[in-house]
Amino acid sequence: MNVTIVVAIGDNGVIGRDGQLPWPPTGDLSHFKALTMGHPMVMGRTTFESIGRPLPGRTSIVLTRDAGWTSEGVEVAGDLATALATAASLDDEVFLIGGAQVYAEAIEADVVDRMVVTHVHQSPEGDAWFPDVDWHGWPETSRETHDGFDIVTYDRA
């Protein structure tokens, strides 16, 4: 199974504010849709609630510590290992789409194979940051340059 983080990061490391993206849409959502379509996506409950619904054509697996939490059309997991096992039973490619705690736990557990990062050329205020990563272990393998943002793929060395 390949595990890919998909994230948009401001120049200052911010990824969110009040459960939302801290900038207006950048135009990378069509890339996100094409990348994740047909594959399971693992996300934290706050990220799911900010989206507001399961995204069509993809299985949403929501991580939450609340054993009683449910939402129609999603799988629920109490921890990252369970979420990844559920994803692996569905497909050999899984996408981690947020939030900060999910990213940090996956990086710490050393389960991530690839990161697809939208580098947003802004430094907004926020309350969620991407975890510190030793980027020396993540060489850049592709880059798409756009007005105001770059989409960069990093593969684990």
TrEMBL record:
GO terms for biological process: dihydrofolate metabolic process; folic acid metabolic process; one-carbon metabolic process; tetrahydrofolate biosynthetic process. Pathway: Cofactor biosynthesis; tetrahydrofolate biosynthesis; 5,6,7,8-tetrahydrofolate from 7,8-dihydrofolate: step 1/1. CDD domains: DHFR. Keywords: NADP, One-carbon metabolism, Oxidoreductase. GO terms for cellular component: cytosol. SUPFAM superfamilies: Dihydrofolate reductase-like. Its EC number is 1.5.1.3. It catalyses: (6S)-5,6,7,8-tetrahydrofolate + NADP(+) = 7,8-dihydrofolate + NADPH + H(+). It is an enzyme of class 1 (oxidoreductase). One of its GO terms (molecular function) is dihydrofolate reductase activity. InterPro entries: DHFR, DHFR-like_dom_sf, DHFR_CS, DHFR_dom. Residues 2-157 form the DHFR domain. Coiled coil: none annotated. Pfam families: DHFR_1. The keyword Ligase does not apply. Key enzyme in folate metabolism. Catalyzes an essential reaction for de novo glycine and purine synthesis, and for DNA precursor synthesis. Belongs to the dihydrofolate reductase family. This is Dihydrofolate reductase.
